[in-house]
UniProtKB/TrEMBL annotation:
UniProt family annotation: Belongs to the IlvD/Edd family.
EC top class named in words: lyase
UniProt keyword annotation of Cytoplasm present: no
Function: Catalyzes the dehydration of 6-phospho-D-gluconate to 2-dehydro-3-deoxy-6-phospho-D-gluconate.
EC number(s) given by UniProt: 4.2.1.12
GO biological process: D-gluconate metabolic process; Entner-Doudoroff pathway through 6-phosphogluconate
Molecular-function GO terms, alphabetical: 4 iron, 4 sulfur cluster binding; metal ion binding; phosphogluconate dehydratase activity
Pathway listed: Carbohydrate metabolism; Entner-Doudoroff pathway
Alphabetized PROSITE patterns for the sequence: ILVD_EDD_1, ILVD_EDD_2
Domain Dihydroxy-acid/6-phosphogluconate dehydratase C-terminal, chain residue ranges per copy: 405-596
Protein name as annotated: Phosphogluconate dehydratase
Cofactors named for this entry: [4Fe-4S] cluster
Length: 600
């Protein structure tokens, strides 16, 4: 099947937009690679420090064995990252068996958005992505690695690691996932209990029991939020091994996949014959393939910010119009919570990413001719890993969906488009994801209630102030205001108002979680209110029209245009919980529509 015209056009548009930056980038990584094996240029003193603690220092000194650096986001805080505790030992063993030496190059921080959701810490969350990129850069700056293994799963961690892998694009990179926790209380039942708690029907004890039954063991949370969207992205972009995203942690298959990933890293260094620098995998076609994966699975809106930031690190410029156009051409093939009742374990069992890639390749909606760490084109990603003793055998993946309530063919999708829309109008530019929003709620015209933070919304809800259709405007939530926290903790209340028959929508320069879903939310509105953007001129009672069908976000009040913006008072967000250390990030962060980058 020939390539779909839209995919071809958008790829060309990105290539043309990025021509000079990508050209300069490729020259930069070629220069870096010219210096040959990394450690050849370290002085004796430098080298002695590198291998002082290495048990196999002779190998390092006397041979040309590739030295593999691990950049790990292990901590006990994130259930998704806790399985990484054992990875370095497993990787060392596999590396030695593959003829390489292995060192942990360094650690990076990882924030759990589930722990910080609705709290001050969430104001550091988006910036932690760039902190992760910086920390990974410090690890790789020892300049003695011939390949890097990146251990990270969750929301800002994979994007930050990819930003580093792109910056150090001369070093081959393999991402090693840890996998989702086994299914617990279904996500929709958890959300129902949250709404019952929000409306006072159940007590905190019932809520706690539901939460603990939903999040119950090591592994990624099972909803299709940003963390699991990241896993999908790495697979569609060829940075993971095929079929590796959603294999549960601490299982023989997971262990065998980790070993196979280490072997691939050892095989693609410049010391061998299959040198594959990360910068050549992270190209325009790979990012377009990742965007197709995002749309066809109904993935997290946070990737609409992270993908441009990751791409920029590889000299590639991506705009929200690219997401919009790809979304218009790509069918929604998966229904995974919050877009459905299934979780990622069910999705994987129904055929998973391999089935989707096969379908989308057949439909001409993916670039087949890409470089991947698997050593194949994207057709290699329709294969499925099976245990063959302690090794991996690659079998042909599912040709048919095993559950058409979760996964459908590209020719008979759940929806003809990916459900992510670009919004434009006199309130600025932003996005809305409607794949989980009922069609009758795609257009809302109502009076505005304006708030400056989510706590004010919660208080107004508690005081019963929402009695009519309402556009809830929460402004001063952009990256330069307070670090652009997720406003996901508003979801249960807004869903209660919807269930009471009101038409409600959220309009904000902030963002939502990938786990947010059924309430229409116009997010990432730029320019943000704190720099004088249009949201700063909205008043209670203004009539706002949110039209996700035509892609319009408009204030219909005629006096709106002549008003002065309400000034931003950042005193509440300037300190406490470490926010005082991020003033420089707030001062330089880019616009959300370009990825809200600090270091890119
Ligand atoms: O997917 C994302 O972008 C997220 O940030 C998910 C967050 O981790 C949520 O906060 C966890 O979901 P809840 O348990 O509903 O709070
Ligand atoms: S998916 Fe979200 S809530 Fe779950 S461990 Fe990762 S960051 Fe935390």
């Amino acid at each position: 099947m020939s390539l779909h015209a839209t995919i071809d056009r958008v790829t060309d548009r990105i290539r043309n937009r990025s021509h000079s930056s990508r050209d300069a980038y490729l020259k930069k990584i070629a220069r870096a690679a010219e210096e040959g094996p990394r450690r050849a240029h370290l002085s004796c003193g430098n080298q002695a420090h590198v291998y002082a603690a290495m048990p196999d220092k002779e190998d390092f000194v006397a041979t040309r064995k590739p030295n593999i650096g691990i950049v790990t986001a292990y901590n006990d805080m994130l259930s998704a990252h806790q399985p990484y505790e054992r990875y370095p030992d497993l990787i060392r063993k596999a590396g030695h068996a593959a003829g390489a030496t292995v060192q942990v190059a360094g650690g990076v921080p990882a924030m759990c958005d589930g722990v910080t959701q609705g709290r001050a810490g969430m104001e550091l969350s988006l910036f932690s992505r760039d902190v992760i990129a910086l920390a990974a850069g410090v690890a790789l700056s020892h300049d003695c690695f011939d390949a890097a293994l990146y251990l990270g799963v969750c929301d800002k961690i994979v994007p930050g690691l990819v930003m580093a892998a792109g910056t150090f694009g001369h070093i081959p990179a393999v991402f090693l996932p840890a996998g989702p926790m086994p299914s617990g209380l279904p996500n929709d039942e958890k959300s129902k209990v949250r709404q019952q708690f929000a409306s006072g029907e159940v007590g905190r004890d019932v809520l706690m029991a539901a939460e603990m039954a939903s999040y119950h063991s090591p592994g990624t949370c099972t909803f299709y939020g940003t963390a699991n969207s990241n896993q999908m992205l790495m697979e569609f972009m060829g940075m993971h091994l095929p079929g590796s995203s959603f294999v549960n942690p601490n299982t023989p298959l997971r262990e065998a996949l980790t070993i196979a990933g280490v072997e691939r890293a050892a095989a693609i260094t410049k010391l061998g014959n299959d040198y594959l620098p990360a910068g050549e995998v992270l190209d325009e076609k790979a990012f377009v393939n990742g965007m197709v994966g995002l749309m066809s699975t109904g993935g997290s809106t946070n990737l609409v910010m992270h993908i441009p930031a990751m791409a920029k690190a590889a000299g590639i410029l991506i705009d929200i119009e690219d997401f919009h156009d790809i979304s218009e051409a790509v069918p929604l093939m998966a229904r995974v919570y919050p877009n459905g009742l299934a979780d990622v374990n069910h999705f994987h069992a129904a055929g998973g990413i391999g089935y989707m890639i096969g379908q989308l390749l057949e439909a001409g909606l993916l670039h087949p001719d890409v470089k991947t760490i698997n050593g194949t084109g994207l057709d290699g990603y329709t294969a499925e890993p099976k245990l063959d003793g302690a090794r991996i055998r690659w079998d042909a993946g599912a040709k048919d969906t095993l559950n058409d309530k979760i996964l459908r063919p590209a020719s008979e999708p759940f929806a003809k488009t990916g459900g992510l829309k670009q919004l434009e109008g006199n309130l600025g530019r932003g996005v809305i994801k409607v794949s989980a929003v009922a069609p009758e709620r795609h257009i809302i015209e109502a009076k505005a209630r304006v708030f400056s933070d989510q706590e004010q919304v919660k208080l107004a809800f508690k005081n019963g102030e929402f009695t009519e259709d309402t556009i809830v405007v929460v402004r001063f939530q952009g990256p330069r205001a307070n670090g652009m926290p997720e406003l996901h903790s508003l979801t249960p209340m807004l869903a209660v108002l919807q269930d009471r028959g009101l038409k409600v929508a959220l309009v904000t320069d902030g963002r939502m979680s990938g786990a947010s879903g059924k309430v229409p939310a116009a997010i990432h509105i730029s320019p943000e209110a704190s720099v004088g953007g249009p949201l700063a001129r909205v008043r209670d009672g203004d009539v706002i029209r949110l039209d996700a069908v035509m892609g319009v976000i408009e204030n219909l009040t005629d006096t709106f245009a002549d008003r002065k913006p309400v000034p931003f008072d950042g005193s509440d967000n300037a300190e406490g919980m470490g926010r005082e250390m991020f003033a420089v990030f707030r001062a330089v962060a880019g616009p959300a529509t370009e990825g809200a980058g600090v270091v890119v």
